[in-house]
Amino acid sequence: MGFRVFELERWQSDYEHAVDYNVADSSVRGARLGDVLTPEEQERFLAMELSYPMVNGTERLRDSIAGLYRNGATGLNVLVTVGGAEANQLACQTLLEPGDRVAVIEPGYRQVHGVAEALGCSVLPLALDRDRGWRPRLDQLARDAASGLKLIYLVNPNNPTGSVLTREERHEIVSIAAKAGAWILADEVYRGAERHTDHETPSFWGEYDRVVAVNSLSKAYGLPGLRLGWMVAPADLVGPLWRRHEYAVISAAAPSMRLAELALAEPMRSRLIGRQRELTRTGWTLMEHWLARHADLVSAAAAEATSMAFVRYQLPQSSVEVADRIRKEASVLVGPGEFLGADHHLRITHGLGADYVGEALRRIAEVLGRMAAQ
Ligand SMILES: Cc1ncc(COP(=O)(O)O)c(C=O)c1O
All domains of the chain, ordered by start, with CATH? Predict the structure, then answer.
């Protein structure tokens, strides 16, 4: 219990700018400022006064975010945050108390895992079963819920496995949550990053009354540097979330909010998502060939979404040891699976452009080959 280092983010903070190739990230290659700020918009942007903006997000931005959800979301359901990261943090601070039981998807992004433990909650894994193509063990979730659950944290589409919950799984999770009176914290930052289809993964928002849906511009839109996210919540929960947002950051940055308004307006929104899908899809083709060429060393289930592959390797060493060898010997940063809840895997992002990823993969294979021969 108590404060726990967020190991994955620590790993990235320490090394991501100290290697030749960083494929430990979870976004596609970032879009450029000039992709969003068209020549017509530049003058207005430069004339912007840098006063404090609306603390909960500009009205225009909140309205356009609400428009991305079905079932009657309005700007009053939206709080604009500093990335999905702040949104997850606020949801935990607002909804959880010491002693609460929290189910957390695993493997997964372990922010809520660490925050919930630091708040004195018990964390129960909602396991994704690797042998069944990373399907969730919902029978276990139902058993855990029978003894009480305050919150279920889902990452859908998932980081790192790229799996997407089916309609039936979503309904079953809602019915388990409803029986227990549990909140669903639906981290949907990879909505729009589907690889097989252009249809966006449906949001949990509107499927049940105790849902907080989180999203950001970091993944599907390829704009992580804006640090712009949001949460959609029942109107009477938005106030308590907002009160904590004031303590943490006051507000998101005014220029980022303006750029977010532009990014979410059509046709820009479709253009950014299209750019991300193209990077994701060409990256996966490259990754698939690499996996086939090195089948003696590595394997991965084809992710339904995201620009990441969760690669299992055939070596006895832990994922931190393997990732450290790759970092030191090849100057390539990969994400150790241990930091995402599954050892003997490496998270490798392929949506960063063919030349960049091709060279990173070549170097990774060289190190793995060497380790296997030792
Ligand atoms: C599932 C998930 N949620 C939230 C975040 C936080 O991202 P951001 O704050 O850039 O939206 C990440 C980043 O990797 C993530 O993978």
Answer: 7-32+270-373 (3.90.1150.10), 40-268 (3.40.640.10)
